[in-house]
Amino acid sequence: MIYWEIFLAFFIPGIIGYGGGPATIPLIEHEVVHRYEWMATSEFAEVLAIGNSLPGPIATKMAGYIGFQEAGVLGAGIALFATIAPSLILMIILLSVLMKFKESPKVKLLSQIVRPTIAVLLGAMTYRFAETSVVDSGWAHSLFLVIISYWLIEKRKLHPAWVIGGSLIYGGIFLS
Amino acid sequence: MNHRDMFYAFFRVGMLGFGGGPAAIPIVEKEIVEKYKQMEQKEFGDMLAIANTLPGPIATKLAGYIGYRLLGTAGMINALIASVFPTVLLMILLLVTLSSFRDYAWVEGMTRGVMPVVTVLLGVLTWGFFAKSKQDLGWLYALILLGGSVLVIQGFGLHPAVLIAALILFVFMKRERPKAGEAG
């Protein structure tokens, strides 16, 4: 059933994604692209790009849109609920308990030990995006855009929204 | 602080926070601690530390908790709607518009053009996670966990959630070594 699948697809990333919203992205991709096959890698990348060029938390933008696309307004509501509720409920209920443990080395180790796994998932996703880009647009365009956007975002500290806007125009003209 | 202030505060947090939830944290602090003076710096810091011990997006944990703490359940819902709803709506409008033009070649070109940029953004994010792992755990443990994750997820095709759940379980089961000089 689609609503149950939408709930699970966003509940799992929300409950294991240590490191905030960005850490949940590869987990969401795993569910949406590989498990339920609602989207191709390129479409997911497009949604992510638009999400990155808009303000606000990324996890809820992804959940809201993907839920809407799969099952309308109710789908968006369920995806948002699954993303937000579990960790928020835990936080409100366990606040006094957590307050005691927030300096505990175990609690600190928790997010540290999960981080390398998230790094691997992010790396694998980066590789798939690069691969799709080379297949769709060829080596020359892909490499050119990677180098110029890295330079603009990391060296010139230009806001990604501008670079994403520029790449949309570039693609619309040269890659169609 | 009334419901209207709550809504505007988190509406601004949602609409001004470029770069995802973590980028919104200083804006939340500015609104709640500095502007509306609803929390002390120390309490905000404690709350942030606790939010970081839990998984999931940070922005909604903060909005939901602050809303609940200041104005009860209705405040929680208000703060969540204000911080999440406007940007989700923008996202849906933009993407639905874009996909209604999907048959045009130039729209397909746009999708292709944006792919390398997302690759760069993710690559940088990946490196950030990797560098932080190395800093916290040291080369050896970071590489062991990294290599183990590659093997288990890419090699054996295990669902990443299972691996992460196993790691979390491992931390909880691990016996805490008593530290010298630590009282009680």
TrEMBL record, chain B:
One of the record's GO molecular function terms: chromate transmembrane transporter activity
Location, primary (coarse class): membrane
Residues annotated as signal peptide: none
Superkingdom of this protein's organism: Bacteria
Localization in the cell: Cell membrane
Membrane listed as a keyword: yes
Transmembrane segments: 6-28, 80-101, 113-133, 139-172
Pfam families, alphabetized: Chromate_transp (PF02417)
GO cellular component, one term: plasma membrane
Keywords: Cell membrane, Membrane, Transmembrane, Transmembrane helix
Membrane topology: Multi-pass membrane protein
Database matches in InterPro entries: CHR_Transporter, Chromate_transpt
Family note: Belongs to the chromate ion transporter (CHR) (TC 2.A.51) family.
PANTHER family named in the record: CHROMATE TRANSPORT PROTEIN-RELATED, CHROMATE TRANSPORTER
Entry protein name: Chromate transporter
